[in-house]
Amino acid sequence: MNQEEFNQIIKKIKEKKELSAIDSQFVKKELDNYLKQYPKISFNPRSQHYKKLIKEVRAILRRTYGLFRFNIKGSKDLLAEHPSTKERLSFYPQLYKQIFQITGTPKTILDLGCGVNPLSMKYMDLTNLTYYAYDLSKEEINFLNQFFNGKGQAKVLDLLHFKTLPKADLAFLFKMTDVLDRGKGHKNTEAVLKKISAKYVIVSFPTLTMSGKKMNFPRRKWIELLCERLNYEYQILEFSNEIFYVIKK
């Protein structure tokens, strides 16, 4: 397959509206991974193999990227419309107050897989804060850079493939471990935790099932064991629908 054919497949995958804003380099990496598993696949657009490739790569992207996406255009209250941030509206002020009681007042924050969470800065009651936000959506990144107006910086970043990040006082990794690990152990989450240049990393998990029922065991024993093995300290903050591990490296 030549480069032109490869690019056409990426374009075809991104024809779905909910995937159109995703960075093409990320699509390329997922497509590469798929083709390594199925190297003899046919690239004839009329073949069943080709149609299956498009369908399955789109499904992967929806699981790892599309779950929390939404349309920025025309939105008035973005925090209330984005699924993840909407769930935190009732406790954002308490959340940040409790986090900062543990970490101290930060001057720099990293937000990895941020979505529109940086808009919740208004609940932090902080001044002189530098905010670094990272996500896969060019649309959200462009919006956030306008929002920051020079007081922060947003960039496209694939958390599975990065070398360095700015140093910070603390980092947010909200509801990102499933995206990183994809049901294959927790090596990716561990690698990201080690690479983050921050004294504190706040990792969160949902405590409700997809149907809205409370989980029987909301705590994640695996991350507690991981912290113990790496000699990281942690404290737990629990709210109505999300649990936060404040990890001190």
Alpha carbon gyration radius: 19 Å
Strand content: 15-25%
CATH class of the largest domain: Alpha Beta
3D shape: globular
Distance between the termini: 45 Å
Count of helical stretches: 10
Helix content: 25-40%
Poorly predicted ranges:
none
Description of the molecule:
The chain has 249 residues and is an alpha/beta fold. It folds into two domains: 3-64; 78-248, Vaccinia Virus protein VP39 (Rossmann fold). It has helices spanning 3-13, 24-37, 48-64, 78-81, 83-86, 92-103, 138-148, 177-181, 187-195, 221-229; strands at residues 108-112, 130-135, 152-156, 168-174, 198-206, 233-238, 242-248. Strand 2, helix 7 (138-148) and strand 3 (152-156) form a beta-alpha-beta unit. Helix 2 packs across helix 3 (48-64). The radius of gyration is 19 Å and the shape is globular. The model has no long low-confidence stretch (mean pLDDT 87).
